[in-house]
Amino acid sequence: MTLSWRRWTLLGLALLWLTLHLGCAAPAAPRLEGDQRVWVTESDEPEARRRARIRLELAAGYFEQGQTTVALDEVKQAIQTDPSFAAAYNLRGLIFMQLEEPRLAEDSFQQALRLAPRDGDTWHNLGWFYCQSDRYADAWQAFARALQAPGYRSAARTWMVQGICQARADQRADAEQSLLRAFELDSGNPITIYNLALLLHKRGESERARFYLRRLNNSEFANAESLWLGVKIENRLQNREAAQQLATQLLRRFPDSREANAYERGAFNE
């Protein structure tokens, strides 16, 4: 399995909650009615919400396949079916981000938060939106709200995205701390590992970068970008044999990649 880190870091990070959460049945949860605790299960879901959720699952699938306008149409129908469904506005915000409609994207996220003000997933996505818009102060606040959300289960993802955003804002010390926190929470995430190694390499800490990147390049998630970074790290450390081994993998597995082209041009400092 190979992934493009550019795709995941620049386009796909905010979408992870879709595949992880959207299609899952809601777990049983208690609520108070008078003095009694009543357990709410899937069968208690209102009919309008059930139909809207099905539309939203379809929309998420279309969006993941790159069929953006079809996904938007499904989201519109989900909202028409249940205008109080916060997750539909959240996905609509992601779609408008993809369509490069920032005003509509932000309006959608804000509407989702009006309906569900403590939803960590929406705060996370809004933070990524602000990062993409270079509104860094707003992004830090949104990520903090996500991490503070009750019951939020995706803290590793938010620390990771915050770290990527901080690196983009040239706040490298803060970025390192965020990515290290993400690594502590989910040491197997290839996006975290790659971005942490990249950051350390850029800071001149290539020994530490190699420590993390080797974990990735020895796994099924190694790709052209991670192998090329490995080549540059080993080259800087003057470990020619290791650099050549990684380069051989790069040229054999990804001969048409721009990383392979960069290697053949000797562009180690680009």
Walk me through what this model shows.
By secondary structure, the protein is mostly helical. Helix 5 packs antiparallel against helix 6 (102-115), helix 5 (86-98) packs parallel to helix 7 (120-132) and helix 12 packs antiparallel against helix 13 (224-236). The longest helix is centred in the first third of the chain and has 18 residues, at 47-64. The radius of gyration is 21 Å and the shape is elongated. The protein has 15 helices and 2 strands. The two termini are 27 Å apart. The chain has 3 domains: 47-116; 117-187; 188-269. The model is unreliable at 1-28 (pLDDT under 50).
Q: Which word captures the global form?
A: elongated
**SSE class:** mainly alpha
Low-pLDDT parts are: 1-28
How many helical elements? Answer: 15
Number of strands: 2
The end-to-end distance, rounded to whole angstroms, is 27 Å
* Major sheet strand order: 1-2
Largest β-sheet summary: 2 strands, antiparallel
The Rg value, from CA coordinates, equals 21 Å
H and E order: HHEEHHHHHHHHHHHHH
